[in-house]
Amino acid sequence: MEKMLSVWKTHPKEGLELKDAPVPDPKDDEVLIQVKATSICGTDLHIYKWDEWAQKRIGKNIPYIFGHEVSGEVVKAGKSVKGVSVGDHVSAETHISCGYCYQCKTGNEHICQNVKILGVDTNGAFAEYLTLPYRNSWVNDKKIPHWVATAQEPLGNAVHTVFDGEVAGKTITVFGMGPIGVCAVALCKAAGAEKVIAIDNHEGRLKFGKDFGADVTVMASDGVDVRKEIMDATNGLGADVFLELAGAPKAFNDGIATLRPGGRASILGVFPKPFEVDVTNDIVFRGIRLSGINGRKMYDTWYKTQAFLRSGKINLEKLVTHRFKLSEIEKGFDVLKRREGMKVVLEP
Amino acid sequence: MEKMLSVWKTHPKEGLELKDAPVPDPKDDEVLIQVKATSICGTDLHIYKWDEWAQKRIGKNIPYIFGHEVSGEVVKAGKSVKGVSVGDHVSAETHISCGYCYQCKTGNEHICQNVKILGVDTNGAFAEYLTLPYRNSWVNDKKIPHWVATAQEPLGNAVHTVFDGEVAGKTITVFGMGPIGVCAVALCKAAGAEKVIAIDNHEGRLKFGKDFGADVTVMASDGVDVRKEIMDATNGLGADVFLELAGAPKAFNDGIATLRPGGRASILGVFPKPFEVDVTNDIVFRGIRLSGINGRKMYDTWYKTQAFLRSGKINLEKLVTHRFKLSEIEKGFDVLKRREGMKVVLEP
Amino acid sequence: MEKMLSVWKTHPKEGLELKDAPVPDPKDDEVLIQVKATSICGTDLHIYKWDEWAQKRIGKNIPYIFGHEVSGEVVKAGKSVKGVSVGDHVSAETHISCGYCYQCKTGNEHICQNVKILGVDTNGAFAEYLTLPYRNSWVNDKKIPHWVATAQEPLGNAVHTVFDGEVAGKTITVFGMGPIGVCAVALCKAAGAEKVIAIDNHEGRLKFGKDFGADVTVMASDGVDVRKEIMDATNGLGADVFLELAGAPKAFNDGIATLRPGGRASILGVFPKPFEVDVTNDIVFRGIRLSGINGRKMYDTWYKTQAFLRSGKINLEKLVTHRFKLSEIEKGFDVLKRREGMKVVLEP
Amino acid sequence: MEKMLSVWKTHPKEGLELKDAPVPDPKDDEVLIQVKATSICGTDLHIYKWDEWAQKRIGKNIPYIFGHEVSGEVVKAGKSVKGVSVGDHVSAETHISCGYCYQCKTGNEHICQNVKILGVDTNGAFAEYLTLPYRNSWVNDKKIPHWVATAQEPLGNAVHTVFDGEVAGKTITVFGMGPIGVCAVALCKAAGAEKVIAIDNHEGRLKFGKDFGADVTVMASDGVDVRKEIMDATNGLGADVFLELAGAPKAFNDGIATLRPGGRASILGVFPKPFEVDVTNDIVFRGIRLSGINGRKMYDTWYKTQAFLRSGKINLEKLVTHRFKLSEIEKGFDVLKRREGMKVVLEP
Fold first, then answer.
1. Which of B106, B299, B303 sits opposite D303 (nearest CB)?
2. How many CA atoms lie within 13 A of C251 on its CB side?
3. Residues of CATH 3.90.180.10 domain(s) within chain A?
4. Chain B contacts of A237, Cβ < 8 Å?
5. Residue D324: Cβ within 10 Å count
6. What is the pLDDT of residues C177-202, one digit of tens each?
7. Which of B70, B176, C211, C255 would be B245's cystine partner, CB 3.0–4.6 Å?
8. B303, closest residue in chain C (CA to CA)
């Protein structure tokens, strides 16, 4: 039986383990993918560190292979596979949905009631090979290099958040300049936003926001009145749209309070715990519309993502700040622990 | 100069004052309305009691005439009035908008940045006569008695909340069985909801909910697990739609937590202060869509309200539990202070 | 091998053939359904008569078993079947979609580019048994008798058409009082329409429209000015919504011309050939929004349909005007050829 | 009384008349605008030529001053004017709506039932001064020169058409490369369309389409299979969106037939007379959504237009191919009669 290098979460503590494992065999409705590039997501860092969230969410799954951002080539296909063939370059939609619950049957598979997440609930992409249901395999344009295509998943999150409503001609605040945030900035500009205001409390990240096209940047240091900065930048009218990609209660409340009456708030950020919201004054009296954003719409989001990549309107290459061998994965986690760079790509 | 009976908020403390005042004269763009019926809203009770909200919001306006729910007859019209004539029966849209801010110019006058509220910022309807901009005068069908038509304003709030999204075939939780809540229940059923679940912590009010058509009622007494009751009533799936008309943090959080992934939350309730929300688990991960609802859409909401009244699908008469002479207005406030009945109507 | 009674289209001419055939065997992703009730659709009548449409569309498929409206019991399930089990009562969604084209992957399987129609492109439901992909099997509430549940498919067409936009409080014209038309009338009323105007040129059918809840009926005899009748019934304003279920050019043009500016036209009717439309005056200058409606949304439409059946808001029983044994199917076609009755049900 | 140069349609035949007329006096709710630039629209050419449409539509209005595209400065304001002041630079929204019909009261003033069109039903902008209701006066950014700002009205038509639905990531066919068409092309690209396919039968105009950003151009000469060209350019899938700005039956039918199932058709073109449409195959079976587009949404369209001008994403300057003195207006009409150039601007 063939062996492959793979990255395991084995013990309930910080760290990971590199080991050889058998190459998995695809089921009838699965493909076997040879991984050409995989990348590290914030979720992977939680798992690596084994923080409270990871213990609770993953505790019972270990030992298993983690990782879920990927681009690779199909090398084998189960007999009932449709729409994807051996030789195709593919990425993974990581929400493996049941296909028969109410959400799945009404166009909302991304919030399936029985969802399993690749690399969280199942063996994932930090390996030389992985198996994936054909319904979760997204065929990439072969012109896009694997090391770029793997970064498509966070771009997809940004696409889902940005296009939760109108963008063209709008003034938009984007809180949080991580990989998803900077992609959101770039998308807003590519889709005709009049003015994009980027907010973060980390100089380096804010600079990335600027590079990706932000018209205004607000450094949210202690003592800075973020609300005033935004109101000044919008002639006192407030923003039309607010995108929360920071996962910070202050960002959430600042963002909503600086929306125009009738404005749109799209929230993808994950907050460590419940927090106070002034629902009456910030949301009700001002007729705000707010949505929780999870994953990517299957597959409307992917088609839009593909279109932006194919037309060259989004330059994903500059999101990838570091490339390592898969065997050097610890180096990648080191970079992220220090909050340096944006996307770390690993190549087997 | 002609005199009229009118109800004033004169002193910064609980109570009101009945006195004679000159009948006002309409400006060029205003009509003079002879009040045939006026009714007491929760807002009026705040003003009567002179609670914290009233002190802050109204403090600088006293002395003035309050009240804003009304039905009457146009007896005089300014020279630039259009679309309403002497002899018409009218009710008041209480949001007097500026007409030229961004919201006003894009179909959202109800959240005008410079809005004035009738009977809050201006002299109101607890009087024998009032003046009103013609743009705020809604012409009623003369078949509807004035004592019923005055209750149209809270029905309008319910229409705005209920029709913030799809209703037909849906399972809907309605928290808060005040006048707006029971109207919402009746509207949901009249618009084809499959199942309406009414929740309140007051037996009498819950009984009203039942009378207005709720399929299931949940008494939110201490010790009752409201979330479990709702999940049981929805076969463990959760509701499609949640309407917050209670203004209670627990209602807000219970309502959102018992929505299906992808469900809709429409929030009209006014909460006394900020409170904790589990944004991540309740909203983000489950793709919830939430809207703040304020006032009535001008005038889409009024047209829908009219249609429901005209077709006989909503029986507003049974909302009116008490009728007094305007001079007996103190009796009306007594009823409401004891949380008896629903809508109290006053007739000059 | 077990045998079953089945109804075949064998020869390229009017008529059908009853014969014994082997009970089919379900594939891995299919169920075997024992037919308890099947019903005759307008499409089946085209096939029976072997008219121009049928020759062109079906020519190359004969001999095969036709019929597609069905309710039955699952008696066998392939090994990869999910969400439906032996013993379940099911109906068929007749659009067998490919699952991987753009439409299928963006929530629009009902307009799949590679769709096959049950009983048109594949062996159908005029038989004692049929096989069906599990993804096309809709589980019915066992409280609904099979002879009623089979009529759910045309109700689904009506649900799709009616709920293509807002209904509550609206004035709606419905052209064509066949089974789909009368279901549409009933749905509009159940969903809070203020006024439903039914139009047909057949007295008997118009009477059905009245029985199903139409507020106004217009008999479109020669010489009747249908447009005037509609404008009179709408106080000269026109209707908010127009549903075309007649498949007649005159109905299409009358319906659009009598919409309010900004009104909605939802077109399900199938017209024998292209016809003249006054696009400029009827559609462009008046800002009309028009949609083509095909099949049922998978499965949003089915959930809504189920909700209306389950809540008792739609009484589908009275749609079924004739019940015969499957072996008496010729009697059913006779009824329909004479345009008597509404839905003809056949029971094996 | 002060005199001004003005351009009149006096006689029911081809041509115009230049003469002196009194400067008009604004009513209470009007402003007086000193015209700094005005431009010639296709409608003006119809009036000039006095074709069938003009005779029917304008016949009873002559003699009157025509023209409606304008940019100027407010020099006087009536006493009830709000939101615009003397000294402001303004353009005219040409739909003078009644303000109280159903459309006006539900956010659709652009399709008001009692609308009057500036320069068609009232004295217009081919003059040194005009009066305009303040509600129709759009305040321009003073950074935009008058000769550019006057071209904002057709840009607004394009904004209304393009943003009738989603644009980002879409493939879009635009038929008709007149001023509105080329603006539409530019807007689609500025708003993130993946691919814009421009179609016209005039080489010069098609070249403008290319200059404004079209990715693909199709010359619709005799013998060219436009449908094939579009299908080839979309990998056989068809376009997501179709914009009809040509006013040609063939364009309408080609555009719809080359949409993807579920695609969007937005029709602004004005067709000389009714024509044949294959509603069944082109619209119904493929679930097409089609809208008639008229004027500009008041004022959502104007805000979006302003945003695109202000952000520099649309370069309107190159739309203006000719500038003349107002007194040389005949030269402008000559240019347009020969179908040379795009927008002709006249400056008093």
1. B106
2. 30
3. 3-150+315-347
4. 102
5. 17
6. 999 999 999 999 999 999 999 999 99
7. B176
8. C169
